[in-house]
């Protein structure tokens, strides 16, 4: 700590404490309480003594310097919880990446197509469950679960399923 000429360390610390008490209360924010801001302001004031011009009053110099540095500190450390309103303001000047928009649209289309496929598959499965003859059911379930079924029997089941699906499409059309 550089003590200005003509002042004692005690006098300088009294002035610093006076300025710190006055300034720190104005800059509480977020998780920074008054005590945290006092510590920051004290450190700022101690660093500023090296740049002090003895032709000016020390209290005025420290008050302006600490005030400005605490404003910078608050600006650099302040954040808001992200929400749509603040995101829109934050992104207002950022150009939109059109490739990301295209990718998102394509992704949504895939999801929609996947959904349609799932619905169609469920409809097909429900048709098969409803109309498949009991004599084929056991082997059909084996095929679904990856259990071996002899090729001629598999072909019979496939033919039966194709017949069910053809009949249902003929009824719809």
In short:
This protein is 72% helix and 0% strand. The protein has 173 residues and is mostly helical. It folds into two domains: 9-77; 98-172, no CATH class.
Low-confidence stretches: none
Beta-strand residue percentage: under 5%
Order of helices and strands: HHHHHHH
Provide the structure class. mainly alpha
The total count of helices amounts to 7
Largest sheet: none
Count of domains: 2
Rg, Å, rounded: 38 Å
Strand tally:
0
Average pLDDT for all residues: 79
The percentage helix is: over 70%
- Overall geometric form: rod-shaped
For the record, give the distance between the C-alpha atoms at the N and C termini, rounded to a whole number.
92 Å
Task: Describe the protein.
With 173 residues, this protein is mostly helical. The protein folds into two domains: 69 residues; 75 residues, no CATH class. 72% of the residues lie in helices and 0% in strands. It has seven helices and no strands. α1 crosses α3.
Could you outline the blueprint of secondary structure elements for this entry?
Elements: H1 9-24, H2 34-48, H3 58-77, H4 84-90, H5 98-131, H6 134-144, H7 151-172
């Amino acid at each position: 700590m550089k003590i200005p000429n003509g002042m004692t360390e005690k006098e300088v610390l009294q002035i610093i404490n006076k300025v710190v008490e006055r300034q720190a209360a104005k800059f509480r924010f977020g998780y920074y309480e008054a005590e945290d801001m006092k510590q920051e302001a004290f450190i700022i004031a101690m660093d500023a003594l090296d740049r002090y011009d003895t032709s000016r009053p020390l209290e005025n110099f420290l008050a302006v310097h600490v005030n400005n540095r605490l404003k910078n500190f608050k600006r650099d450390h302040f954040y808001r919880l992200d929400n749509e309103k603040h995101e829109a303001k934050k992104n207002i000047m950022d150009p939109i990446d059109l490739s990301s928009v295209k990718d998102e649209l394509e992704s949504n289309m895939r999801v929609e197509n996947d959904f349609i496929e799932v619905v169609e598959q469920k409809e097909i499965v429900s048709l098969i469950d409803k109309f498949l003859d009991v004599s084929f059911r056991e082997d059909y379930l084996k095929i679904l679960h990856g259990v071996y079924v002899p090729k001629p029997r598999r072909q019979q089941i496939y033919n039966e399923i194709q017949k069910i699906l053809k009949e249902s499409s003929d009824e719809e059309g």
